[in-house]
Amino acid sequence: MAELHDLTALEQGAAVRRGEVSPLQLLDHYLARADDVGAFVTVVPDLARARAAALPREAASPLHGVPTAIKDLHPTTGVRTTFGSAAYADHVPELSDHLVRSVEDAGMVWFAKTSTPEFGSPCYTEPEGLPPAVTPWDRTRMAGGSSGGAAAAVAAGLVPVAPGSDGGGSIRIPASCCGLVGLKPSRGRISGGPAYGDPVGLATAGPLARDVRDAAALLDVLAGPRTGDPTWAPEPGSTFLSACDRAPGRLRVARFLEPVLADTEVHPECVTAYEDASRLLESLGHEVEDVPVPLPREAVAVFEVCWSVLTALSRAPEGREGDLRPLTRWLAARGERVSGPEFGLAIGEMRRLAAAALMALAPYDLVLTPTLASPPLPVGALRDDEDPAADFAAQTRFTPWTSAWNVTGMPAVSLPLHQTADGLPVGVMLAARPAEDQLLLSVAAQVEAAAPWSQRRPPGW
């Protein structure tokens, strides 16, 4: 007999609507599950139970009554929010951000804050003084980052879906490490308010889920402009969930294997995943074509200028600067050396590089690459507190494709199509033209139907 956590998020929402299970029963089921993957940094069972008990019977969304958890970068009213940093260990915000409000307005019940590295910067989730977030497929290996806690929670069945955020791959990286669907939506699809902390436009929130339809349903919850947003994606006209039921038609798919932002050796399993995905797309009637890398290598330096300035904007409270990690201090110091005009020039150059890439890819409906250069690495394999520059360089080699689509603003999804012989997940990544999130979901659902993965269960499930 299936356990409640065996059900998809949409199935759980349907069971709530039919009266077969209450939101409080669902919540208690998840609260009873043990976190042995470093998923959560704060758990608020009493607050969540009160919220679940107070939900109206009328469903606000298909995910009404479904439990979830909030990444610890998002402020939550009256609940500790550390931003992954010891410098904010005691920080309790007065207001929640728009993402949290969207989750609550949809009738979802969040009961925990998910682990993230300091200020969401590294691509691994190993916060100070806390267990690292690990993939449940091998608990000696990383869950990725910066949405590592969210991904570990979903992959281990601690929540059915969870929002993450992605400024350089931070949804798609842990999705690949944990065997999940991880979607970075188009720029402007989800509000970054009220803080609007990324003036460059690299970062966005997005869903992590075990299957495409759950990811689409959570995107429906999160998407939509808020008054005051500086940019916004066009309204889709119908739900993202409904896009999963539409045939995408015959599409042109560009593909390239050469790393974009780093010289790195690509693991054979990642190459196999990429080649298998190419053949699968061709078998579904799509035309797959090799293309040159659309971003030049000089984009690396431009991206690093912007990334370091964004890190410098994430300041510690006065007197707590010594609590920051060496990597954060090193990146912030780089950012503080950048003058205002230099930063403005870097943003302009990034937009010109993005425009050139978008023009080069305009004839194609999709772009296929590996998600990562390797299967999930052992915990600590990238982190180097003694040499932050080496740490940063190792991260770049591990993630040489993901940042490209943050630069262009294109929607991109990591799909868990491959597993190694010893059971480690390996993702492949598809990207679509800006604002074509629905097409991307339509193709992802088609791929999942042809090569399903949702019944795979990690050890300890």
Describe this structure in words.
It is a single chain. The chain is α/β, with parallel strands linked by helices and 461 residues long. It has one domain: Amidase signature (AS) enzymes (Alpha-Beta Complex). The chain is built from 15 helices and eleven strands. The chain has helices spanning 9-18, 23-31, 45-54, 98-105, 148-155, 172-178, 212-222, 240-243, 268-283, 299-313, 326-336, 340-361, 388-398, 402-408, 437-450, and strands spanning 40-43, 67-71, 109-114, 161-166, 181-184, 204-209, 252-255, 287-290, 366-370, 412-419, 425-432. An eight-stranded mixed β-sheet has the order 4-6-5-10-11-9-7-8, sandwiched between helices. A three-stranded mixed β-sheet has the order 1-3-2. α9 links the parallel β7 and β8. α10 packs across α11 (326-336) and α11 packs across α13 (388-398). The longest helix has 22 residues, at 340-361. The relative contact order is 0.14. The model has no long low-confidence stretch (mean pLDDT 97).
